[in-house]
Amino acid sequence: MEVKLPINRDGVTLSQRSCQMTRTHLLFIQAILAIAIGCAKSEPTQQVTGKISYQAKALDHGMVSFFPAGGRPIGAAITPEGSYEIELPPGQYQVIVNAPPKLPAGFKEGDPLPSHDPNALPAKYSRQQTSGLSATISLQDETQTVDFELE
Questions:
Q1: Nearest Cα to Cα of residue 148 among 136, 134, 138
Q2: Do 2 and 28 have their domain in common?
Q3: Percent of the chain at pLDDT above 90?
Q4: CB within 8 Å of 5: residues ≥ 6 apart
Q5: According to the UniProt record, where is the region Disordered (predicted)?
């Protein structure tokens, strides 16, 4: 038994027309949402710079991450001079620093990893619960400086 769906004068079945309308409505809603999100007011941010040292020497690689209460972390790379630069909304932050051990010169993929790096940053600085690092960021006319001296 063959079921024939009603066809309108365009030669399109009613179920096809319904799907086309649903797709059109979804595209329209997505466009409106994209415009609304794009036009939303962005939170004011503060330019923050700082230096990170470990055992009184500039930390020459790694990443510093700022964790706001209940929000996503915002991170910045640490330069070879031990500095970082980031824009943050004002507020309180827990801070972590990650600096994985450096690979020796001439290291190739497949070589065994070095067993110990005497200059490696202790793991406690890479966890929110144990880093002990925090920062308070406030809106200022000038760049705010936040340095971290790790021991």
A1: 134
A2: yes
A3: 56
A4: 13, 14, 15
A5: 104-151
Give the domain extent around 6.
1-40
* C-alpha dihedral sign at 83, 79, 42, 73: negative
Where residue 10 falls among pLDDT bands split at 50, 70, 90? low
User: What are 96's two structure tokens?
Assistant: 């972590």
Instruction: Please tell me the pTM assigned to this model.
Output: 0.68
Buried b / exposed e across 71-81, counting CB within 10 Å, b at 16+?
A: eeebebebbee
Task: Determine contact, residues 84/47, Cβ cutoff 8 Å.
Answer: no
Strands 144-145 and 46-54: parallel
| DSSP-assigned letters across all residues of 2-69 | -----B-TTS-BHHHHHHHHHHHHHHHHHHHHHHHHHHSPPPP-EEEEEEEEETTEE--S-EEEEEET
Q: Maximum CA pair distance of the chain?
A: 85
CA distance 92 to 106: 42
Token pair 């619960």 is found at 129
Question: Per residue in 91-102, pLDDT tens?
Answer: 999 999 999 877
Same domain, 92 and 136: yes
